[in-house]
Amino acid sequence: MNLLLYGAPGSGKGTQANMLRSKFGIPHIATGDMLRAEIAAGTELGRQAQPILAAGKYVSDEIMIGMIRNRLGEPDCEPGFIIDGFPRTVPQANALDTLMVELRKRFDRVIYLRVPVEELLQRLSGRLVCPQCQRTYPPNTSVCVADGSALAQREDDKPEAVRPRIEIYLEKTVPVLDHYRASGLVSEIDGRGTIDEISRQVLAAVAAPANGSTAQKAANKQQA
Ligand code: ADP
């Protein structure tokens, strides 16, 4: 099962990806988490990426494509994967298409979590994150229920970075959705509501047969 989670920052992709990972036992590949791990480890890539993330901008397509190429080639991805945070630009989407053909894989479903911009701004400013497990919490909470770690604010959830993140999403990442709509694989889900309600809809979407056109299905088959 190969899934792609699509949505704005703060739309709940990480939460739903964790649910899908436990349910299907396939890895959750979150490019933002991978970049934060590089920063924490003090690697050369981490040093380059740190100011970019802090400003709410995008790391270069070249770096991100290389990163996803390496990750999808790892053995734990063989049975399937959940990608969250990639592709964020049309060139990244084109590169991922090529990579999927090379790997002889295709996506079973693209899940789009739709949340209005006003709500995104509200959710991001003030949310807290567990530095260990990346679980997110509302303001005024202090420790993670899963592992007891002290919660912290992500550097890019500070007010000065939140608006640029939404702006770059609207400019560069919204066009990526059209790229996938043509495939008939996109399931659009209202990202407002309780986590459980949204999870139920995500699981129903994953279980439903793809409604791609016959031509697209034939193309997918040829690629597989
Ligand atoms: P969010 O979706 O909430 O903004 P992420 O953890 O997915 O958070 O990403 C954090 C940051 O990492 C992004 O703002 C960006 O700087 C960088 N990043 C992650 N994925 C990509 C990507 N595919 N292309 C470019 N930059 C990326």
Q: Which labels suit this protein?
A:
single chain, 224 residues, alpha/beta, Rossmann fold, five-stranded parallel beta sheet, two-stranded antiparallel ribbon, 9 helices, binds adenosine-5'-diphosphate
Describe the protein.
With 224 residues, the chain is an alpha/beta fold. It has a single domain, classed as Rossmann fold (3-Layer(aba) Sandwich). It contains nine helices and seven strands. The protein has helices spanning 13-24, 31-41, 44-54, 61-72, 90-103, 117-124, 159-181, 195-207, 214-223, and strands at 2-7, 28-30, 81-84, 109-114, 128-129, 136-137, 186-190. A five-stranded parallel β-sheet has the order 2-3-1-4-7, with helices on both faces. Strands 5-6 form a two-stranded antiparallel sheet. It is globular, with a radius of gyration of 17 Å. The structure holds adenosine-5'-diphosphate. The site of adenosine-5'-diphosphate has 18 residues, from α2 and α3. Residues 9-10, 31-32, 35, 52-53, 56-59, 64, 85-86, 88, 92, 156, 165 line the site of adenosine-5'-diphosphate.
